[in-house]
Design goal:
Blueprint: H1 24-29, H2 31-60, H3 75-82, H4 94-100, H5 107-111, H6 116-122, H7 136-143, H8 156-164, H9 167-192, H10 194-229, E1 232-237, E2 240-245, E3 254-258, E4 266-278, H11 280-283, E5 289-290, E6 298-299, E7 304-316, H12 322-329, H13 333-346, H14 352-361, H15 370-407, H16 419-437, H17 441-459, E8 462-464, H18 467-474, E9 478-482, E10 493-499, E11 502-504, H19 512-517, H20 520-532, E12 537-540, E13 546-549, H21 552-563, H22 568-574, E14 575-581, E15 589-596, E16 601-608, H23 609-614, E17 616-621, E18 625-628, H24 631-646, E19 649-659, H25 661-666, E20 679-688, H26 695-704, E21 708-712, H27 717-726, E22 735-738, H28 739-744, H29 747-754, E23 761-765, H30 769-781, E24 786-790, H31 796-801, E25 804-808, H32 814-819, E26 822-824, H33 829-869, H34 879-897, H35 921-948, H36 956-980, H37 997-1017, H38 1028-1039, H39 1041-1050, H40 1058-1065, H41 1074-1099
Parallel strand pairs: 9-21, 9-24, 17-20, 21-23, 22-23, 24-25, 25-26
Antiparallel strand pairs: 1-2, 1-3, 3-7, 4-5, 4-6, 4-7, 8-26, 10-11, 10-20, 12-13, 14-15, 15-16, 16-19, 17-18, 19-20
Helix pairs in contact: 2-7, 8-10, 9-10, 9-16, 10-17, 10-34, 13-14, 15-16, 15-17, 15-33, 16-34, 17-33, 17-34, 18-33, 20-21, 24-27, 33-34, 33-35, 33-36, 34-36, 34-37, 35-36, 35-39, 36-37, 36-38, 36-39
């Protein structure tokens, strides 16, 4: 391709003298030591190769895993010392290559070796063909793989240790030991160990379940993190364009770079056109750096291409890159980088937005989501309430002990237990109440739900990069979507063309009429402009069919040029590219300056039709001539453009101009812009990009769900409106505006104009990335939850500003992906709708679990508190029983309810608000209704159970049976209520019950373990075996929970729960809407600014405001 200046392959060269690297003197001084060490080195190398053989094979076959990283000594150095042939024929060593790219880089150091092409020659690489596939393994063995070892991960035992750090569990451990000692002392070995061992076993079970869950979640997040880091690269191998994973890159590879790419390894520029790189991640300097093969060819791993395009030669991979050394050599490197980042922020070298984003990229910020923070806060408050209850229970129990045993002289108090046993038992109950009351399951449910949903979303083509995006997506009120590739297929075809003042239609299959009617010169000039002013590369697939690489619009134009009979290689060989100004979304056009073989210079421009047309002074006309482009003629051409746009076609204007030699003498390639005035309009191409199947229906679903979908595009407003109507985005009363109109307004003017009719603003055409950012910012200030899509480097700001930034996995640049929260792997709008459903599902699952857990909390705390304080009664639940209930409630409940799949009915509701209470009025109804029913049943059993079941409370065994019935009924109430909790409003809770195998499994396991505990644990769990009649009664009464749930759901509920009413009561009587308040604030701020401005101008002697 002409745009890439590829040096001719010099062919293989023999051994040659080469400059010694800066570190080479060490080997010279230690030749004797090398003789002793070489055998050890060779043995170590063979050992490493044997260990890494399997993973090396995986890389060769395209597996994501990479081999163990090896950095062998230079074979050349070994040959110099001992004349040992290691089988490598590269004439430059890894150490020398590392030395070349070591910061600070030095062009003089490179000149000692020659140019980038000379380095390629030493690496045995033909820069036109790239690395041969058969050479890849050899290069992996010698130069290492492009993988930086991850820091060691926590082992399972570390999670066990973390689980043991829970304060309440530590207290319970001491209680278990004390109970064991007191029991053995009072009752002997045969019966005295039950309570202590029972509590210990329950504690171990809680610890192990917690550790297993945390460990599994860590594995899941690690797996997803690995997927986010897997970047696909465009390289040249075996003489053709190829796509490989970043982990498969080897030294010598030729990588094609374009705007938005992350540089995957250290290397040197081979060719470039307006190539600019952001090196702030490595150097700390915020200024963009221009790169070319002569003055500054050094490219560092991890930096980002912000403009232009080019190709690079890879010279260092993995641990042999500057970034790799930083990560591997110094364990405190990340801390130093953070210190440097803090320093930059303190010195105002970077903005607060950049500071937060970079800290998040470096893993220095907590990954807690807003929902987790809210639930942690709620858990703390509930925990404090539980602690209060526990203290009261302990104080009452101690008071009862003193009054009944010593005040009344009742020696039988405590059923024969010693004073120490009673005290330990009471402390255990109090501590266990705290364990049950503190809802650790709330944050756990969020984590489980997020981990489960992230995996499911990945299978639905959504790669989640930041956890907060999962839950935020459920509350999205606005989706600001790109058009190309998201709403449309991105399979563009030229279907209409205006050439030589003639309009040709139906060009997608046959363009013979164009060949017949258009003069040869105009046709030839148009073909040259399309072929030269393009980044498209054409190679061949394995089946021999052409493979096009580049932007979809350019590919459509190049394909059309080939239909017209163009020979791409011949055209590009006839011209030499002098300079390129790549397309960007701000100027919406691309220009190329070329020199023909006869010495003449030409500029070629293409881009948005009305923009390029304004630069044209002439029109290519039949008769091998060009006509002055008058205003009247220009209006005629604009009419052609308008007609194409009304047919949903994207229009591209192709133009050119011959540049005079005098101009070229003064032209500075480095600093001067390519001239764009006085152009000749050659043609207007109408390109069809069909609407994606399923998009119109998906947009309707969003609108039904209370989400406003807006299309933001660079197309002209006519095309944008036509496509928006096709996609069901633009309604009859909808508003379509141009970016320049939006841009011209102040923030206050935008709020005033668009605020009251926010839902009607549905299309923004001819928009820039800045317009997209400003729109997102405006929507957020109006308290909207905004999701935005973007694929370009310039979209990064808008992606970061949005509540949910969605980048495109296929067409998106690496910069856009790293700035986003979610990567849409198939670039499809319907995937965004699926994400909304999953986001709502997460929030809904958390609410279901919250309602379930609060019901358990209220009932468990109430029954134990009443049993503790009421004279003549005892708490019915022992510590072991409460720990078992805690496991059902926290771990199993979170797993069962946190992993429910989304249903279509979720899209029937409006989005939840940013500040909506977690516990809704419907949830309050269900919680209080179920708690009331369960407490009535359990209180009847507690106070009248001895009569109902014909039991004597004064007999220890029969009291244990009664408490076991109460415990059994309580546990099965929770199991049945878990089924109720599957849906907070639907009456049929068994819908899709048997399709959720995990939920079914947890219900079955809970029932089985409950039977085992009751029938086999005996004194260890303070239970007694029940008769079949007692089982039938306890489970039968508990099963009434389900019909009671139906009755409760039939009760009417207001829109406002207790918490909402309290907030309104304390709102100082303000009843205006948020928008009205915001408008009033803006007007107030404006008036204050005007006053300040007037004061400043009056001081300067001016009366004008």
């Amino acid at each position: 391709m002409a745009a890439y200046e590829v040096p001719a392959d010099p062919g293989p060269s023999g051994e040659e003298d080469r400059p010694r690297p800066r570190s080479a003197s060490q080997s010279q001084r230690n030749k004797d030591n090398w003789k002793k060490a070489v055998l050890v080195l060779n043995a170590a190398r063979r050992f490493r190769e044997a260990g890494g053989r399997k993973s090396n094979k995986a890389v060769k076959e395209g597996d994501a895993e990479a081999p163990a990283i090896k950095t062998p000594r230079s074979s050349q150095d070994l040959k110099e010392v001992m004349d040992i042939e290691l089988g490598y024929d590269y004439t430059i060593s890894p150490e020398e290559l590392v030395d070349l790219l070591t910061l600070p880089t030095d062009i003089e150091n490179l000149k000692r070796y020659g140019t980038s092409a000379d380095i390629a020659r030493k690496l045995k690489v033909n820069t036109a063909c790239g690395v041969e596939t058969k050479e890849v393994q050899k290069r992996l063995d010698y130069f290492g793989s492009n993988v930086i070892p991850d820091p060691p991960h926590k082992k399972f035992l570390a999670y066990v240790w973390d689980a043991c750090q829970d304060v309440t569990l530590i207290i319970l451990m001491f209680c278990a030991v004390a109970s064991l000692i007191a029991g053995l002392a009072a009752e002997g070995v045969e019966e005295g160990w039950y309570d202590g061992v029972g509590i210990s076993v329950a504690i171990v079970a809680v610890i192990m379940i917690t550790a297993v869950q945390d460990y599994r979640q860590d594995l899941q997040f690690r797996e997803l993190d690995a997927k986010t880091k897997d970047i696909i690269l465009h390289v040249t191998r075996d003489g053709s364009a190829s796509e490989i994973s970043i982990t498969q890159l080897v030294v010598g590879d030729i990588v094609n770079l374009s705007t938005g790419d992350q540089i995957p390894a250290d290397g040197l520029v081979l060719s470039s056109q307006a190539l600019e790189v952001d090196e702030s991640s490595m150097t700390g300097e915020s200024d963009l750096v221009k790169k070319d093969k002569l003055k500054n060819p050094f490219l560092l791993s991890g930096t980002k291409v912000t403009d232009g395009y080019g190709s690079m030669l890879v010279t260092g991979v993995g641990v042999n890159t500057e970034w790799g050394k930083l990560m591997c050599v110094d364990s405190a490197a990340n801390e130093k980088a953070l210190e440097r980042l803090d320093e930059q922020f303190a010195n105002k070298e970077i903005s607060e937005e950049e500071y937060k984003d970079k800290k998040e990229e470096m893993g220095a910020t907590e990954q807690e989501t807003p929902l987790q923070i809210r639930l942690n806060d709620m858990a703390t408050k509930i925990g404090k309430g539980g602690l209060t209850v526990a203290i009261l229970v302990l104080l009452v129990r101690i008071a009862k002990f003193l009054v009944y045993k010593y005040g009344s002289g009742n020696e039988n108090y405590g059923h024969g237990k010693s004073d120490s046993e009673l005290l330990v038992h009471d402390i255990s109950i109090a501590v266990t109440i705290v364990v049950v009351a503190v809802p650790e399951g709330l944050p756990l449910a969020v984590t489980l739900s997020l981990a489960y949903s992230m995996q499911k979303m990945y299978s639905d083509n959504s790669l989640v990069r930041r956890l907060k995006a999962c839950e935020a997506m459920g509350g999205a009120t606005n989706i600001c979507s790109d058009k190309t590739g998201t709403l449309t297929t991105n399979r563009m075809t030229v279907v209409q063309v205006w050439l030589a003042n003639q309009l040709f239609k139906d060009q997608e299959k046959d363009c013979s009429d164009v060949k017949e009617k258009v003069p040869e010169k105009i046709l030839k000039d148009s073909i040259a402009s399309i072929c030269l002013n393009s980044e498209v590369q054409v190679s061949k697939n394995e089946d021999g069919s052409p493979l096009y690489t580049g932007k979809a619009t350019e590919i459509a134009l190049v394909k059309y040029a080939l239909q017209l009979g163009a020979n791409l290689d011949e055209v590009r060989e006839e011209f030499k590219v002098v300079k390129v100004e790549p397309f960007n979304s701000a100027k919406k056009k691309m220009g190329t300056l070329c020199q023909r073989k006869d010495g003449k210079y030409f500029v070629f421009w293409k881009g948005a039709s009305e923009i390029v047309l304004d630069d044209c002074a002439f029109l290519a006309y039949p008769g091998d001539s060009k006509k002055k482009l008058s205003e009247a003629t220009k209006e005629e051409v604009k009419g052609i453009i308008q007609g194409m746009a009304e047919n949903s076609l994207r229009t591209i204007c192709v133009s050119y101009k011959e540049v005079k030699p005098d101009f070229m003498k003064k032209f500075d390639v480095e600093s001067d812009d390519i001239p764009s005035n006085g152009l000749t309009c050659l043609s207007i191409a109408g390109i069809k990009d069909p609407c994606r199947p399923g998009v119109p229906e998906a947009v309707k679903k969003c609108q039904h769900a209370g989400i406003v979908v807006r299309m933001i595009t660079g197309d002209n407003i006519t095309t944008a409106k036509a496509i928006a109507r096709e996609c069901n985005i633009l309604t009859e009363d909808g508003l379509a505006i141009e970016g320049k109109e939006f841009r011209a307004m102040s923030y206050a003017e935008r709020i005033k104009k668009f605020g009251p009719k926010l839902e009607k603003m549905q299309v923004m055409a001819r928009s820039s990335p800045t317009d997209k950012f400003d729109l997102v910012h405006m929507l957020k200030t109006l308290d909207e939850v905004v999701a935005v899509t973007g694929d370009g480097t310039n979209d990064a700001r808008a992606l970061r500003e949005a509540d949910i930034g969605c980048s495109m996995g296929i067409t998106g640049t690496e910069v856009a992906k790293q700035s986003s929260d979610i990567v849409i792997l198939d670039d499809n709008f319907t995937t965004i709708v699926t994400m909304v459903r999953w986001g709502r599902c997460i929030y809904n699952n958390i609410q279901k679990f919250l309602a379930f857990q609060l019901t358990v909390n209220v009932v468990a705390l109430s029954i134990n508190f009443v049993g503790a304080v009421v004279p003549g009664a005892e708490p019915p639940f022992s510590p072991v029983q409460l720990l078992w209930v805690n496991m059902i409630m926290d771990s199993m409940g979170a797993l069962a309810l946190g992993t429910e799949d989304p249903t279509e009915s979720l899209m029937d509701n409006k989005p939840y608000g940013r500040h909506d209470p977690l516990v809704t009025p419907i949830m309050w109804r269900n919680i209080l209704g179920q708690a009331a029913f369960q407490l009535i049943v359990l209180f009847i059993f507690l106070f009248e159970g001895d009569k109902l079941f014909n039991l004597d409370k004064d007999i220890d065994h029969e009291l244990t049976i009664l408490n076991t019935i109460i415990f059994n009924c309580f546990v099965f109430c929770q199991i049945f209520n878990e089924m109720n909790a599957r849906d907070m409003e639907k009456l049929n809770v068994f819908e899709s019950f048997f399709t959720n195998q995990l939920f079914l499994f947890i219900i079955v396991i809970s029932c089985v373990f409950q039977v085992i505990i009751v029938e086999f644990f005996g004194q260890g769990a303070s239970v007694a075996s029940l008769s079949w009649q007692q089982w039938l009664i306890s489970v039968g009464i508990a099963s009434i929970t389900i019909p009671m749930g139906i009755v409760i759901k039939l009760l009417p509920v207001g829109e406002k729960g207790p918490w909402t009413l309290y907030q309104e009561w304390t709102d100082e009587g303000q009843d205006r809407s948020y928008l009205e308040k915001r408008l009033a604030d803006v007007e107030n701020e404006l008036s204050q600014l005007k006053e300040k401005l007037a004061q400043v101008l009056s001081l300067q002697g001016s009366k004008k405001v």
